[in-house]
Structure formats: structure tokens, C-alpha cells
Design brief:
mainly alpha; 16 helices; single chain
Length: 417
């Protein structure tokens, strides 16, 4: 039996739907491009730098605060109150982006700094509920269901903004106003779709008299969790590199249009949805370790396919852009599975009395992977986009090797748990 009811699991899963709207629309696709093209003056030579300052600053702040908040949870602080606070702040500051006009660069950076940091903290806090809701036997399945439906939230938010809300011609005052007001829409989306989480999920609290796990005590006392997080940082950095630079890669290396990029987005979101669900069931049969290794293998095939794209396109008689859509479908299925299964592993191996701080440290290493992924951008500028793919291949290979070396029955197969 699950510790949590089906209603609770549904409510918890809806938070992944809610917060996907922020990262998809604000960080990945819509507002990031709007900020670079319209908030930053056209004469500036540092459009990307300004955006990087906002993202890097918020990432570092989240890395610092995430383990601390995890320890607060272990001490008995209400997870629901912490999650509501982070959600409310993120939503409020997302709405405040509507007030940022062209030229107000540092105001936009400051607002993104707060909204993105609180979004990241909310992701870690929400993950800490997993140990309350799932048994060891179905930890990966429950995580996969939530992560899978989360991609539908990203897809729905993009439809609302790109197809229904922003309709004016690019460059017009109406276009600027619609992009600004779209941030209010996303703030409302986030709060409304997170309501089932706050209404249906119970706030179980079992205060730990100890202060909770820190980075130092994890390395000292929890060898398996430490080794997993090191492997996780490498293979997650490989995936983050592709996600963060896919727009730049497709436009500069493949010459794909904005419409082509939308097709890539749709392909990855839909395949990620099905991949997260399917691999959740696969994990019940194969165990967490084999499932993640299978996902890493799939990603290696995808990145190698990107490198040899023209050869594969000629082999199958397709245009390179069409072939890339098929590669994106493959990558999407691995994207959903590798993240949901990794979140499930933390729930499997973390001590129950220190689940909050364990997931806080999970948030720390997720952000560390994001920073490590920036290396792809550096390699992109030095050796070119196609050759830089070997950096991604190396990250996946190192992460996969380190994970393969882990010896734990809990990771090998937990069907009987």
C-alpha cells in the first residue's frame, strides 16, 4: 500500500503541472527571448550576458538556501507552508515582470533573480513530499507520473501564451504589451494549478531532534547518497546542456527557424510525457539503477545522432531538420525518465528522518549540474557547436560510469521492497 492516497498523489502531481509553466514560458522559451530582444536595448552587445547574470545569480542563491530549507523540514517545519510561501513569492514576482519596460534591464534581472530562485526552492520542497506519498516499491512510478503530467503543464502554458495570448506582430507596442501581460497570466496559472497540492496533500511532520543532514555529514555518513549525487551531477549536466542550448544549436548549427524550434518543443514535450510514464513502469521491473542507465544510453544515442545528423538523414532519405525531429522525440523520452527516476532514487536511499535535507541537497546538486552545463556554451564558442557535443557525450559517459559502479540492492531492484 502507498503511504499516500490516490487523491494525495494527484494533488502532488499537479504541482509539477503548475511549476512547469514558469520554467517553460519564463525561463526557456518566451520571456527569455523577449528580455534579450526587447528589454535589453538593441545596441547592447551583452544581451545574453544580462540574462546569464539573472539565471546564474538565482541558481547560486537556490544552491545556498536549498539545503538549509531541507534541514528546516527535518526539524518539523511545515512543508506545505514553506511550499506555499515559495510559490506565492514566485507567482508575485512573475506578475511583476509585467511592469518591466524596454530599457529597465536591472529591474528585470532583480525580478528574475527572486522568481527563479523561489521556483527552484519550491521544486526541492515539493520533491520532499515523495517519501510521504510513495512506498519503496513504487517510488519511481509515482515520481514518473508526476513528472510526466508536468510536461503537459508546460505544453498547455505554451499554447495559452504563444497561440492565444501573444497575437500582435513582433516589434509593435501591442506585442510588447502582450508579452508583459502574459507574465500575469503565468502567475495566475501557477497559483491556480498548484491549489490541488495545498488542498489535497497532507502535511506529515515527524520532527527530527538532530539538526538534519548537511553537505559535510552527507559525505561523512551517507556514502551511497554521496556517490549517487556525484554521478547525478555529471549526467544531469549533460542533459541540462542540451536543454539550455538547444535553441542556439538548432539556429546557428542547423539553420532551423523559430517555427522549426516550436516543432522541436512539441516533440520533446509529448515524448517526455510518455517517457516519464513508461519508464516509471520500467523501473518497477528493472530497478532504479538500470532504468537510469538505460536513459543515459538513450541520451548518448541521441547526442551521437545529432553529431552525425547529416549522415543519418542521407541514410534514411530525410532532410536534416526532419531527422532532427525524430532525434528530439527520442531525447524527450529520455528527458522525462532520467529526471523522474533520479528524484525517485533520493526517496529510495535517503534516511526517512532526513528526507527533507536529502531533497534539499538534491536541489543543490541539480543547480550544480546547471552550472557545470555552462561548459558546453564555452566549448561551443571555442570549437564550434558540433564538436562541442563531445563535451555532452563525456558528461553522460562519466555520470553513467559512476552510477554503474554503485553497488546497492535498493538501486538494483526494489520490486520486493
Amino acid at each position: 500500500m502507498n503511504p499516500g492516497s490516490k487523491r494525495e498523489i494527484f494533488g502532488w502531481s499537479m504541482y509539477d503541472v503548475a511549476n512547469s509553466a514558469y520554467t517553460t514560458v519564463v525561463i526557456s522559451f518566451v520571456y527569455s527571448a523577449f528580455f534579450v530582444d526587447y528589454i535589453v536595448p538593441g545596441a547592447s552587445q551583452a544581451q545574453g550576458t544580462y540574462w546569464s547574470i539573472a539565471i546564474l545569480g538565482s541558481t547560486v542563491l537556490s544552491m545556498v538556501l536549498s539545503p538549509y530549507i531541507g534541514r528546516l523540514i527535518d526539524r518539523g517545519f511545515s512543508k506545505k507552508k514553506l511550499l506555499f510561501t515559495s510559490t506565492a513569492i514566485c507567482s508575485l514576482f512573475t506578475a511583476l515582470l509585467a511592469l518591466v519596460s524596454p530599457g529597465q534591464i536591472w529591474l528585470g534581472i532583480a525580478i528574475i533573480f527572486v522568481s527563479n530562485a523561489t521556483w527552484m526552492l519550491g521544486e526541492s520542497i515539493n520533491a520532499s513530499f515523495l517519501s510521504d506519498l510513495a512506498s519503496k516499491k513504487n517510488m519511481g512510478l509515482v515520481s514518473g507520473i508526476a513528472w510526466g503530467v508536468g510536461y503537459l503543464g508546460g505544453l498547455l502554458s505554451m499554447v495559452i501564451v504563444v497561440l492565444l495570448w501573444v497575437s500582435a506582430a513582433a516589434g509593435t507596442p501591442e506585442y510588447v504589451a502582450q508579452n508583459q501581460s502574459a507574465m500575469i497570466v503565468m502567475a495566475v496559472f501557477f497559483m491556480v494549478f498548484s491549489l490541488p497540492t495545498f488542498l489535497l496533500v497532507k502535511d506529515r511532520r515527524t520532527p527530527n531532534p538532530n539538526p538534519g543532514m548537511t553537505l559535510f555529514t552527507m559525505v561523512q555518513d551517507h556514502k551511497l547518497l554521496t556517490q549517487f549525487f556525484i554521478a547525478f551531477t555529471f549526467y544531469m549536466a549533460g542533459m541540462q546542456a542540451i536543454i539550455k542550448f538547444i535553441g542556439i544549436y538548432t539556429s546557428s548549427v542547423l539553420g532551423m527557424s523559430q517555427q522549426d524550434l516550436i516543432s522541436v518543443f512539441l516533440a520533446t514535450q509529448l515524448s517526455a510525457f510518455f517517457g516519464a510514464l513508461a519508464f516509471g513502469f520500467i523501473e518497477r521491473a528493472l530497478g532504479a539503477k538500470r532504468t537510469i542507465l538505460l536513459s543515459i544510453g538513450l541520451w548518448l544515442v541521441c547526442v551521437l545522432s545529432m553529431y552525425f545528423l547529416e549522415n543519418l538523414a542521407a541514410l534514411f532519405g530525410m532532410a536534416p531538420n526532419t531527422m532532427f525531429i525524430f532525434v528530439a522525440l527520442m531525447a524527450g523520452s529520455g528527458m522525462g525518465s532520467i529526471q523522474s527516476a533520479s528524484r525517485g532514487v533520493v526517496g529510495l536511499v535517503a534516511p526517512e528522518s532526513e528526507a527533507g535535507s536529502s531533497f534539499g541537497l538534491w536541489g543543490f546538486f541539480v543547480r550544480a549540474a546547471s552550472i557545470l552545463a555552462v561548459g558546453f556554451g564555452v566549448a561551443f564558442d571555442i570549437v564550434g557547436g558540433r564538436q562541442a557535443l563531445w563535451v555532452v557525450i563525456a558528461l553522460f559517459a562519466i555520470g553513467g560510469f559512476l552510477l554503474w559502479r554503485l553497488k546497492s540492492q535498493a538501486l538494483e531492484n526494489h520490486k520486493a521492497a
